[in-house]
Specification:
Length: about 160
């Protein structure tokens, strides 16, 4: 069966992506971190690069750096997030791109509204996921957040995209 027509798979992927978005919006960092596989990559490119090893990135974290990022957010000493930003995002256009065994490639659009003491910011992105089955759920092996406004100066982004 073509993965794009496997409605059970699409529903499972959508639920995973929506849950990840909720955990980010509600600052549930430890639960969000638990969604990642041990060999995970979390990437937010700074430009139109296709190779994060050769170009600058806003975020290019392996699993240990993801854990460090969460640990820093949990200290309460992340001054750009004191007080924390209020976040709400809308995720849409979820697509299953391909499925091969336990691995699923998916993509979605996201619109994130951030409100903090400096004002309000709207972030838009196309997110690409590589998910790996883990029992009845998934783990993220890779997430790429392709910001629409990545070519402009970005203010502090000290939260999870």
């Amino acid at each position: 069966m073509n993965a794009a027509h496997d409605y059970r798979l699409i529903a499972d992927v959508m639920q995973f992506i929506y849950r990840e978005a909720r955990l980010q919006d509600e600052h549930e960092y430890e639960a969000w971190e638990a969604l990642w596989a041990e060999d995970a990559i979390y990437w937010i490119p700074a430009g139109d690069t296709i190779d994060p090893d050769k170009s600058m990135s806003i975020v290019y974290d392996n699993r240990s750096r993801i854990a460090l990022r969460v640990k820093q957010l949990l200290t309460g000493r992340h001054f750009s997030q004191s007080p924390r930003s209020a976040l709400r995002r809308v995720v849409s256009n979820v697509e299953v791109i391909a499925a091969d065994g336990d691995t699923v490639r998916a993509a979605a659009n996201a619109m994130l509204f951030e409100s903090n003491i400096k004002g309000e910011t709207l972030w838009a992105s196309r997110n690409e996921y590589t998910l790996r089955r883990a029992g009845d759920d998934f783990l993220m092996a890779r997430k790429k957040v392709d910001l629409v406004n990545k070519d402009k100066a970005l203010f502090s982004m000290a939260f999870l995209m």
